[in-house]
């Protein structure tokens, strides 16, 4: 799962469909906004709890309250130095939301195996998180550094996983998944950007679009797995802070699922046929036995 912000909730109808079909996932992988959804699903939250989490993330103050230290940082002269606490927005509210939602849960103890991917902004490498505090992992995998500070883990400065894997199909392939259902909620380009912010987002979306295509192709080439991509398009352009209507996002996910429902079932059936066609392993002959000369009397 991957997307920008609240649009990631469009994946919820896909989870509901899989459970109805008895196809509960063996592994959940999320990056960016998708990390939050993967965590909610991995923890077994019901729809009411998911909507409550959605409402909590709609608080505009999460990304608009300037960190007092940021003003000092920006006034350091020509060459201000970035450190591990650097971020334009104060991250305390955002971290607090994650802490309240996940209440001390640990990644390794979730009901469904869950991996969240972050980016080490010091090296540009993707980092897979599968142990430790779920709240901290969700923050690490989704925080839009440099808007908010990175999560520091040893020498790593962890930020939004979509910087390196917008849709982490490669991570699913590395972990041996033979059928991957990838859900991505697209955000439209601003055809007439209103300012520098929208212009910058257009550039970021261009990079993500190219990476999506390349990494999905690489996933298929390297693993030979069944890959089904569900692309949702919520009707309004909105970021994480916009408080977009929950029902409209679910509706977009439902429409995307309707287009791909048959493909998901076909992929599972194709994998089942391949498995049933594989020859059964024969038991080895007992020691000392030869063709035509069975051991014993």
Automatic annotation (TrEMBL):
<dbReference type="GO" id="GO:0016042">
    <property type="term" value="P:lipid catabolic process"/>
</dbReference>
<keyword id="KW-0442">Lipid degradation</keyword>
<dbReference type="InterPro" id="IPR050301">
    <property type="entry name" value="NTE"/>
</dbReference>
<dbReference type="InterPro" id="IPR002641">
    <property type="entry name" value="PNPLA_dom"/>
</dbReference>
<dbReference type="Pfam" id="PF01734">
    <property type="entry name" value="Patatin"/>
</dbReference>
<keyword id="KW-0378">Hydrolase</keyword>
<dbReference type="InterPro" id="IPR016035">
    <property type="entry name" value="Acyl_Trfase/lysoPLipase"/>
</dbReference>
<feature type="domain" description="PNPLA">
    <location>
        <begin position="1"/>
        <end position="173"/>
    </location>
</feature>
<dbReference type="GO" id="GO:0016787">
    <property type="term" value="F:hydrolase activity"/>
</dbReference>
<protein>
    <recommendedName>
        <fullName>PNPLA domain-containing protein</fullName>
    </recommendedName>
</protein>
<keyword id="KW-0443">Lipid metabolism</keyword>
<feature type="region of interest" description="Disordered">
    <location>
        <begin position="274"/>
        <end position="297"/>
    </location>
</feature>
């Amino acid at each position: 799962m991957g997307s920008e912000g609240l649009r990631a909730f469009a994946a919820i109808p896909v989870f509901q469909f899989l459970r109805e079909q008895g196809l509960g996932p063996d592994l959940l992988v999320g990056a960016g906004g998708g990390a939050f959804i993967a965590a909610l699903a991995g923890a077994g939250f019901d729809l009411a709890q998911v909507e409550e989490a959605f409402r909590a993330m709609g608080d505009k103050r999460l990304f608009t309250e300037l960190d007092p230290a940021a003003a000092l940082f920006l006034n350091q002269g020509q060459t201000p130095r970035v450190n591990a606490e650097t971020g334009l927005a104060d991250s305390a509210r955002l971290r607090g939301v994650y802490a309240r939602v996940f209440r001390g849960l640990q990644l390794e103890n979730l009901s469904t195996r869950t991996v969240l991917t972050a980016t080490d902004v010091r090296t540009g490498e993707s980092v897979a998180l599968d142990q430790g505090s779920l709240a901290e992992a969700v923050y690490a995998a989704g925080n839009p550094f440099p808007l908010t500070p990175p999560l520091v883990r040893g020498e790593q400065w962890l930020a939004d996983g979509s910087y390196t894997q917008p849709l982490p199909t490669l991570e699913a392939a590395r972990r041996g998944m033979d059928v991957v259902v990838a859900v991505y909620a697209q955000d439209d380009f601003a055809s007439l950007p209103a300012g520098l912010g929208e212009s910058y987002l257009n550039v970021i979306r261009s990079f993500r679009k190219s990476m999506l295509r390349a990494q999905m192709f690489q996933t298929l080439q390297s693993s030979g797995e069944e890959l089904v991509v569900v692309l949702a398009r919520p009707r309004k352009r909105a970021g994480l802070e916009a408080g977009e209507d929950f029902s409209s996002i679910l509706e977009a996910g439902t429409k995307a699922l309707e287009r791909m429902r048959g493909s998901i079932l076909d992929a599972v059936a194709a994998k089942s046929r391949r498995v049933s066609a594989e020859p059964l392993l024969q038991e080895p002959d007992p020691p000392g036995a030869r063709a035509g000369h069975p051991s014993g009397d």
